[in-house]
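Question (not urgent): is this output format expected?
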Amino acid sequence: MFIFNNLTRIKIIDLNADRMVYVSCNPATQARDTEILNPEGYQLKKISLVDQFQHTSHIEIVVLFEK
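Got this back:
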């Protein structure tokens, strides 16, 4: 699972990318990281749920952020 730490967040924000795709298997951390990215100008544009592992209870969240 990918979780933002301060150094990772700084590097991602410093890239100043116009678009970013965020894939997460944990809705709680994805929501938390969305709250971190919003003040930096990243807006959630699209969200999709993907069941990559049908034999488990996990589901992946794919989000497109744009500035």
